[in-house]
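Input sequence (92 aa), recorded before submission:
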Amino acid sequence: MRLNQDQIGHIARQIVRGLLREELILVDQPEQATELLVETFIKDFQAEDALNDEVRELLESYSDEISRGLVNYQELFRKVKAKMARERNIVI
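Predicted structure, token format:
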């Protein structure tokens, strides 16, 4: 995960405050809305981290080609990750 728990909480609080200020949402307990948003962010980051791990494992089978310069690892990683994300309906 690229952000720590405090950073995620701060971003979630700012989003909820902004939505309330602009009257785009109405909630009785903003803290619960913030907590739900934090949980959603964390689940999303965890899904992307798991996808990254899976792509790395998959690309290990291409290590010979990558080490010989036949395939660019970063480009291949990006393409495989994007394809797997589309197949699993993960927004990255």
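Checked by second reader. DSSP finds four helices and no strands in the chain.
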